[in-house]
Specification:
The protein is of the alpha/beta class and 288 residues long. Helix content is 30%, strand content 19%. The strands form 4 sheets. It has a 5-stranded parallel sheet with strand order 4-3-5-6-7, with helices on both faces. A 5-stranded mixed sheet has the order 11-10-9-8-14, with no helix packed on it. A two-stranded antiparallel ribbon has the order 1-2. A hairpin with a 2-residue loop joins strand 8 and strand 9. The N terminus and C terminus are likely disordered.
Length: 288
């Protein structure tokens, strides 16, 4: 089975070490979105390293060569990093391909990004499966690196199938909408079950320019809980933190991937030290 020309493994592949894995550099200063990208790219067996500044990216590139760079085109250092990546890398003598992320989906922004050397552009907020497919295709096209998608990952008692938008939990299989899948990945990606505010959920899943009714996040969390048979009074997966937001209940270990059992790969968080939670921004909603 394949999507967008990407091979999909029917069984879980053994997770390779970093030297053999696809490698992705992420330049983005939003920890919430970085975590979402990293969890999503686990399906593609990517080793991910993240940088919040050009200096951090340069330090990584000094002795580590990615197969793809995922860059926030709205980041102040994006143009400078594109210049660095567009030159032949001293380790490989090759150019690193770039997937650009932008909050601006207009044609002019996309044309400008392509003119700067971006190989593909993805408007945020994005669906996890689209980010995964585009990243794999770009890495394969540029470097020839092959390898399937691992469609299912395990988070404690939950198995998530990104290809079919399915979750197996409590002995049953449920299908998720695109919004529900994005919401679940966003919450599950936070290291140690960190709280995600309603404002941050709204920005990451619906976008900063989305004018929403005040309870849209709560309604979709409620719908997701119903499908997961998760009682908010005694939650197994998603807990409400009154006055703050929601958190995914981390029932998994910190031992990293476990891909050798023949079942879904198990995700353990996290190689990267977390940055402080960003304060919520004010928003003008329709009707305010």
């Amino acid at each position: 089975m394949s999507r967008q020309g990407v091979a999909v493994a029917t069984e879980t592949a053994q997770i390779p070490d970093e030297a053999q894995a696809r490698r992705a550099l992420v330049l983005l200063d939003l920890p919430l979105v970085v975590d979402l990208i990293e969890l999503t790219l686990n399906h593609g067996l990517f080793a991910v390293r993240a940088a919040a500044t050009l200096a951090e990216a340069d330090a990584i590139l000094a002795d580590w060569v990615p197969h793809i760079a995922v860059i926030d085109m709205d980041h102040e250092d994006s143009s400078d990093l594109l210049l660095h990546l567009g030159a032949s890398n001293t380790l490989t003598r090759s150019v690193v391909p770039v997937l650009g992320l932008t909050r601006h989906g207009d044609l002019w922004t996309k044309l400008k990004a392509f003119d700067l050397g971006v190989d593909d552009i993805l408007t945020t907020p994005f669906s996890p499966e689209e980010l995964l497919a585009r990243s794999i295709v770009i890495a394969r096209r540029a470097s020839g690196i092959q390898g399937p998608i691992v469609p299912t990952i395990r988070l404690g008692e939950m198995e998530i199938d990104i290809v079919n938008r399915q979750v197996r939990a409590g002995g049953s299989v449920v299908h998720l909408s695109g919004i529900e899948q994005s919401l679940l990945y966003l919450l599950a990606s936070r290291d140690g079950g960190q709280i995600v505010s309603r404002e941050d959920i709204l920005d990451a899943v619906w976008g900063t320019d989305f004018l929403a009714e005040s309870n849209i996040v709560d309604r979709h969390v409620r719908s997701l809980r119903v499908k997961l048979q998760d009682d908010y009074r005694r939650p197994r997966f998603i807990a409400t933190v009154p006055g703050e937001g929601y958190r995914f209940i981390p029932t998994f270990s910190n031992d990293g991937w476990d891909g050798g059992s023949g079942g879904p790969a198990e995700v353990g968080h996290r190689r990267r030290k977390q940055k402080p939670h960003a304060p919520a921004r004010s928003r003008t909603r329709a009707g305010d």
